[in-house]
Amino acid sequence: MSDPFFHPVSGFDLPRFAGVPTFMRLPHVDLDHPRLSEVQIGLIGVPWDSGTTNRPGPRHGPRQLRDASTMIRAQNGATGVRPFERVNCADLGDVPPNPADLLDSMERITGFYNRVMAAGITPLTAGGDHLSSLPILRALAKNAPLGMIHFDSHTDLFHSYFNGTKYTHGTPFRRAVEEGLLDPKRVIQIGIRGTTYDMEDRDFAASVGIRIVPIEEFFARGVEDVMREAREIVGTEATYVSYDIDFVDPAFAPGTGTPEVGGPTAFQALQVARLLGGVNIIGADLVEVSPPFDASGNTAFLGMSILFEMLCVMSTPREG
Amino acid sequence: MSDPFFHPVSGFDLPRFAGVPTFMRLPHVDLDHPRLSEVQIGLIGVPWDSGTTNRPGPRHGPRQLRDASTMIRAQNGATGVRPFERVNCADLGDVPPNPADLLDSMERITGFYNRVMAAGITPLTAGGDHLSSLPILRALAKNAPLGMIHFDSHTDLFHSYFNGTKYTHGTPFRRAVEEGLLDPKRVIQIGIRGTTYDMEDRDFAASVGIRIVPIEEFFARGVEDVMREAREIVGTEATYVSYDIDFVDPAFAPGTGTPEVGGPTAFQALQVARLLGGVNIIGADLVEVSPPFDASGNTAFLGMSILFEMLCVMSTPREG
Amino acid sequence: MSDPFFHPVSGFDLPRFAGVPTFMRLPHVDLDHPRLSEVQIGLIGVPWDSGTTNRPGPRHGPRQLRDASTMIRAQNGATGVRPFERVNCADLGDVPPNPADLLDSMERITGFYNRVMAAGITPLTAGGDHLSSLPILRALAKNAPLGMIHFDSHTDLFHSYFNGTKYTHGTPFRRAVEEGLLDPKRVIQIGIRGTTYDMEDRDFAASVGIRIVPIEEFFARGVEDVMREAREIVGTEATYVSYDIDFVDPAFAPGTGTPEVGGPTAFQALQVARLLGGVNIIGADLVEVSPPFDASGNTAFLGMSILFEMLCVMSTPREG
Amino acid sequence: MSDPFFHPVSGFDLPRFAGVPTFMRLPHVDLDHPRLSEVQIGLIGVPWDSGTTNRPGPRHGPRQLRDASTMIRAQNGATGVRPFERVNCADLGDVPPNPADLLDSMERITGFYNRVMAAGITPLTAGGDHLSSLPILRALAKNAPLGMIHFDSHTDLFHSYFNGTKYTHGTPFRRAVEEGLLDPKRVIQIGIRGTTYDMEDRDFAASVGIRIVPIEEFFARGVEDVMREAREIVGTEATYVSYDIDFVDPAFAPGTGTPEVGGPTAFQALQVARLLGGVNIIGADLVEVSPPFDASGNTAFLGMSILFEMLCVMSTPREG
Amino acid sequence: MSDPFFHPVSGFDLPRFAGVPTFMRLPHVDLDHPRLSEVQIGLIGVPWDSGTTNRPGPRHGPRQLRDASTMIRAQNGATGVRPFERVNCADLGDVPPNPADLLDSMERITGFYNRVMAAGITPLTAGGDHLSSLPILRALAKNAPLGMIHFDSHTDLFHSYFNGTKYTHGTPFRRAVEEGLLDPKRVIQIGIRGTTYDMEDRDFAASVGIRIVPIEEFFARGVEDVMREAREIVGTEATYVSYDIDFVDPAFAPGTGTPEVGGPTAFQALQVARLLGGVNIIGADLVEVSPPFDASGNTAFLGMSILFEMLCVMSTPREG
Amino acid sequence: MSDPFFHPVSGFDLPRFAGVPTFMRLPHVDLDHPRLSEVQIGLIGVPWDSGTTNRPGPRHGPRQLRDASTMIRAQNGATGVRPFERVNCADLGDVPPNPADLLDSMERITGFYNRVMAAGITPLTAGGDHLSSLPILRALAKNAPLGMIHFDSHTDLFHSYFNGTKYTHGTPFRRAVEEGLLDPKRVIQIGIRGTTYDMEDRDFAASVGIRIVPIEEFFARGVEDVMREAREIVGTEATYVSYDIDFVDPAFAPGTGTPEVGGPTAFQALQVARLLGGVNIIGADLVEVSPPFDASGNTAFLGMSILFEMLCVMSTPREG
Known about the structure:
Ureohydrolase (chains A, B, C, D, E, F); eight-stranded parallel β-sheet; Guanidinopropionase (chains A, B, C, D, E, F); alpha/beta
């Protein structure tokens, strides 16, 4: 049973549109807070988008996600899980990026997550563009390569952009494999679609053993079957979950920078998160929410609902 | 065959963007109009949202729904029904609410519907937030409790909010059961989903016999099967239909105050309304359209299409 | 193998948000350009909406479609086709319409396409409202009536509007059949739905042998089955493809003037285009994108993705 | 003192967001209404934009202006005038245009206004694009050419567009002078600005004696001085007032099709209307409100405030 | 010199789009915080709009104002004042309203401000609709009636609405005078404009000695002269400042529920706040920011800039 | 007299919404074009925003500015200048930036402008964030420091951000002075306002002799007087003009990343550009248009109108 200090404010006490918006109305426990060590799952914002090669905006993601998150109530309607009663959750604040220096920002992110890991906290991240996952993985995969379940419309496995630039939101997992942060044989990418420059990313995936599930296969096989395979691929060892909001069809999630039409529905977007049950998740992220392209906040609300589903899974003890 | 006075203006005579916008381009017949008694189905606006606990706006619903309704043509493309030729339909105008006095507004609404019932008119309501249904039911269920088919993402069965407040858009059907306006054994709620505060609403439902179909069951069983059960539950006796636009996924209906992601498509939203055929509908509503959150009017157009489907069913003689 | 002159600019060389936006970043080859005769497939804009009876705006379609098209990369992710390497493609610019003279504009459009046909170019058109298809067909169907696969929520087969007006976006294919431009027995219309004025259009379709697939049938049978029938109906002879963006559900394509709720998803919208493989397409269009009703450009991006799918099919040699 | 039948609904009785939206909440008295002959000033919508050479949308103007007009209360705060108590005002509905036939629409408009004039009603028009003024003037200036005070950023005096097209929203007053509907020596155009094709319009103005006040002169001299000259130019004889919303700076009135930056403020926009006092106004219009470019309705609210100011002046007995 | 604990986070340390958004990036010090008694000026949100008679939304004001406030830097560019170094400022959080019970909410607000006053804190409020000012004044004017400088387009002095309702956002200052919270002879209302129901509010003002400066007089005399009079009227005794964002022209502040066209510019909006220097301000508010009508946040940013100007004045020692 | 090849397409030949959108409908002459050397004034896009410390988006500026620029006609309505007849103007395309490598992008920009200068072309730039001006100045100020007239709400003179980062959009002119690209005694900055971090930028300005005109002084003295001083400060020697769209009040130009309320009107924004007459302009830019924050394109239209005013001045022979 979690400590009441870590319980979110109820909408029956303070209407959901009121109050200083922390993630899911949890207490704001920054890295210098006296109760930091009691936190079990920490929600962290990475307000950064310097890796974006197309439309920018994810630097504003954490702010809008916090705002939308005050709509999240205490209990999962589908599964009945009440995560905030099971584990101590808190809003750890945002990593302070340097918007004008990409490499400095990457160091700042890794440094922040090093401290989180040192405190024994499992991080649940609200991005930020997808390059954010790389400096996070550098902190999380210190001991051994991780498995990864990756929801996205893009592989983000390209070698480089713009005549040799190696760090963009289209390359993080190429780097992560190269750096030994991911075990490619325990990586699955689900929902891939859209036009492509060439086959360079998929050739790399094939060469190292990354499993790609294109959207056509996803729709043909169905959510349950694909997720069963995903769980098998990552097995029982430590696994990262990276969820790009552009996995979802842009009708449901227009607020992103590089949308690809023809994706899953919001219902399926929640289902795949729920079906992570049993996976040994040592960290997860939801990235690429770009508020300037959806001022309504609906994309952020979907993103936050996905984060909540992941949190419910992460707060549930695994069997065996 | 209906009287030509009650036929809507055709888009071939006056383009659909032109003219004073009444509901479905029907004549405006207010409660003092000499031809009131000839009306069989009356469309009524309830521009009121004082029961809203989250984002307001449904007070603007009837205006935008009227505007969108001029896109509705004379014939149902799917079923071939031409409702305006079958029954005399009219726009009865709006109930005059008191935006700064919740209880006074409830009395005004009940009073308005008392007059509508006295004139022998079947009301088809464009809300307004969901609390609107309660004062309407007070006028409609004078003699005996009604059955209800309720489409929504929320049960609206909570006991109270904010330390004891009994009248909000989250409580109308708790009150309706308590007041004997609904027969809980003839009530079915379809599409329920999203996070919840606790199980207090569902425990109540279980205790009085209200049938809840969560969205997961809805998708698993399919529209036809769920609606077959719904028709069985309400049987042949008098039934109210209450349709909250947030039943539909917010990608299709973003203009609402408390959206829950992961709902049915617009096609399914129309299907469930069509499958009301045979139900003894003595009144129906479409509520929670909130124009400030969808200035495009697309949500209102969907809402009006649902109202038109319900009107087609209501204008069709039941068998036997 | 196509000439490098006709290859689009890569997003790795020039970011996709940069540069003068031609269709799919192809060279702008106007009708007086020295290399016109080398073009095999020409993308053409018809910035015109004088046939619109409801909400205007498709005159702005080509501009927004060009803008969105810079998001299209070189390769089809689903089929692997790289159309720009197979055939010489170019942006032929826009037909200059006369926004204040409907008949003059129709002559200008036919004149433009006459020149395109004379140059031996297969036209792929970005509209424009649906009346645009009529003057295009006048240029394409000079020798014999064409077959047509038509995706739409409306039949566009009405006789006339507003007391006798024969040229509107609701009548082009009635005229095309009357003028002998289409062989009605080789015409199929897919996705028809929404309310209707009356049955005049469908009665005409039945009388001349046009096949209509209502949306209910489309969903019941599935994409593959319907498209198999479509390919059978048009056979191996010359066929036009006309794709109204309002075929797609407005959640996915809000930027159009006469939306009808309850349509296919974006994924299905792409699927039907892919399943045109094997059809003898001598021209195609994507019409009714109306930017004022979707400033985000998401509708245009879907429209352009559909055009790209059609281009991929058109660039692929047919068997036999 | 006006008849209570013609008084608008008060916001104290029915909140301003409620009810069927007629112009200024006045009774809807169509041309066949039994009390038509009692109307003194009639508000009329012209939902038409076929003369638009640039961005379309004014066909939706009357609908949005009616919606915004329910914000207008009974009394002018600046002048104290209560127009609805002085004269019988009513909403006469919309002229039914033919969106696909420009010349037919012009005849329909003139026919409608002929009936209005025959009933002895002074028309106050909500457009529509600026070509609307021409068919209106044809009905109003039957006996003698009128004077005109014209607020606009464009002269609308061009000879023709697109290789000879004579009827567009850039030509109405060229035609009106040619047809003897306006006395050019009693015409003043105020607020002219922006880039121009050439000097053809201004050369014409100079040649026939139309007075043009460019925006630079307007700002330099001030509102009072310019309006004093305007009143002198039109004198005491019958005068038409034509007010294009693009007279106002687009920061205040973005919802128009051909904005020109650098115009007057909303306060000045109201002032010039107030300073029409004493002019012998036999008709007036407010045109070019284009809702697709300002879904918020703020432009329409300004437009309606201007119409109200003109109504106040028109309802006030002139001295002498 | 203020305590560093109370200094806002600098944009040089944490980019302005990052972090949990408190007002002006100040520490969140709720009423139970151990350092509450050190706060000198407390920013408070009142997320409540039950008094709104027209378009709702100000309940969302505090959230959006907090978000926009992270754009405020440490120093006033015009006056050089650095308020956060002069006095201890903090974000005291939001009053918890009851959205479905108007009278209960008023009591909650007064109760909250009683605690603020008891702690010796000067409150600076971000509304909320204008009815919020009444329960605040009940806490602030316990000992003697206050003077008030009131910026608004409406007097908010009406007796009642909707057949006798006494508490709406159009009546707070009528009530405040009746209850002895304001000394009407020390009250000035600046910027009044727009249409009115009748003269009931102005007759009341005249009868009790409230000074009204209509917008026409404001523009004619200029900002300095009007504000000189305002300072004279309130004198050196305790004064409340109430600033309705609809004082400003809706081109600059569209995000409000009852806009009136023809108001001051943003520059003038800041000037009047700066010219409060020397006034004995014991509390101030900025109300009626309605985010649903300006999702861009621009209105909120202007509102926050006004609050910052007032804070600068309030943090500056008065002479003598 | 310019060559007809360099004349823009007329809106009378091709409606302004039609055609591939180049800047002002000029021919697209890239740096490899055979007629490059004939160009006298070249419009160039810099689609880049890596220097942005706050809200991103200016990378999309050139695209939207091109789109808006098709509204620009051939003649300046205020001054009568017809620039395209005086000098050969062309769209030189966009500099290809590297969105993920700030320093590489700066080199690419300088390289591009080196080629432009080598071709003898005067560059007129559409940004891009304000850091763009630095690499441009590096190409333009090779021989001697330039004077500069700078319109902005910010000085952009800060030393560094985020713990030492020297290249951001808040630092370009600090660098330019340090690098000897600007002669600070011939630099004037007009319109400065808003809150500030501290006085570091202004202290630097004072120490090197840069003249700052705060907005309060600008309004007090008036446009003519300020611009007379500006012309005196830069004198007759080579001068750069840098125009940040956030100089203008955000009511007129909301589409920018770091707006400051309380600025000039659009009319004044044009006036200051016109009053550059006589200045020896060797290059100019208009920066910080951020389309994601104004999808309407109104900000871009104002930006383009300012660029047109500057073009008119630049195309006019200076006296003496």
